[in-house]
Write a structure and sequence with these properties.
Layout lengths: L4 H18 L13 H8 L9 E5 L6 H8 L4 E6 L2 H10 L5 E5 L11 E6 L12 H15 E10 L15 H9 L5 E4 L6 E7 L12 H5 L6
Parallel strand pairs: 1-2, 1-4, 2-3, 4-5
Antiparallel strand pairs: 5-7, 6-7
Length: 226
């Protein structure tokens, strides 16, 4: 599965038009209610961030960096996005030795390095015109998990909504959760922060002790140890 040239062009055109209209603003990225920080907080909520490396798929302006800077003093960050205009602004705003950016199609790119944690926020929100959205999600999950040693955290628009836009795609939380289980037994779906969005965590370490049947990752990263 890869994005069609038509859908790639559609995404790039849409964001360029918004950038021309709004400039550096969450509105350019399609967020118009001031909750971008909440999303970033949720997507990093179940990981120990200190000293870790992050792959940000569909990084936009790279502002996940701001959340990471609040959580930890040391980390590595690699943000990629389809839209060169957004990537250029991200480079200017986060010109730091531990932050890198690239304009690329994630599913088409050759990435010759690994990371600890993969994040994707807003990447799956648009309805594909020449592709299957669920197949796209699975392809991104599979590649991200091959590159990230600890796991991934992705967010989605929910189909449990009061209204929908014509250009957006709303996912079944149940179906996304089932998809997550196809990669690991250790998954978390959070729908406790917004009624119309949710995020899925997939942890690659799903080992457990037969003595207590607790995930080993849970014992390392239990609430009392955060």
């Amino acid at each position: 599965m890869k994005l069609s040239g038509h859908d790639v062009d559609l995404v790039i055109t849409r964001y360029r038009e918004r950038l021309g209209r709004y400039g550096y603003s969450p509105k350019t990225l399609g967020w118009d209610k001031g909750k971008q920080e909440v999303r970033f907080e949720m997507l990093t909520s179940l990981h120990e961030c200190e000293g870790k490396s992050f792959l940000d798929i569909g990084c936009g302006f790279g502002d996940l960096v701001l959340t990471l800077e609040k959580k930890c003093s040391s980390f590595r960050y690699y943000g990629i996005d389809l839209v060169p205009d957004l990537v250029e602004i991200a480079r200017q705003r986060h010109a730091k030795a531990h932050c890198r950016f690239a304009a690329m199609d994630f599913l088409e790119a050759t990435i010759d390095e690994t990371f600890d944690i993969g994040i994707a926020s807003g990447v799956f929100n648009f309805r594909l015109e020449r592709g299957d959205n669920y197949a796209f999600v699975r392809a991104v999950m599979e590649k991200a998990l091959s590159l990230c040693s600890e796991g991934i955290a992705f967010d989605f628009l929910s189909d449990k909504v009061d209204y929908r836009y014509e250009h957006t795609f709303h996912y079944s939380p149940e179906r996304i959760l089932e998809m997550g289980y196809s990669f690991s037994r250790n998954v978390v779906l959070r729908n406790d922060y917004m009624p119309f969005e949710f995020c899925l965590f997939i942890f690659k370490d799903d080992s457990f002790s037969k003595d207590d049947t607790l995930f080993n990752r849970y014992k390392r990263f239990s609430p009392g140890k955060r």
